[in-house]
Amino acid sequence: IEGQPGNFTVTLKKRPRYIDEEKCTSCALCVNNCPVRNIIYTEPEKEELKLSDGDLKRVRVIINNYKDKKGTLVPILQDISSQFSSQYFDNTRSAFDMAGSTQTDRY
């Protein structure tokens, strides 16, 4: 630490203690050298949402209503929420994926 209170610089000499999963080669060196008790955490895979053909059609209609509009996803999510029960609301992103749209298409 260099400088005075309110005006200082900190230099870190250690690398961050996490594993970049995209660079992982499954060599297990991280497990053997882990300073935090060899704990391995991976994101749990999300369960695939299965929609009936009728429900999928309803989602596509809602998405198409916003096709040429710019803005946030909030109005789309609100429309989907009003059309479906809470079990579908929790999995709205999967519904978008199944309908062939992505968050970055327009929003």
UniProtKB/TrEMBL annotation:
Domain 4Fe-4S ferredoxin-type: 14-45
InterPro entries, per the entry: 4Fe4S_Fe-S-bd, 4Fe4S_Fe_S_CS
Protein name according to UniProt: 4Fe-4S ferredoxin-type domain-containing protein
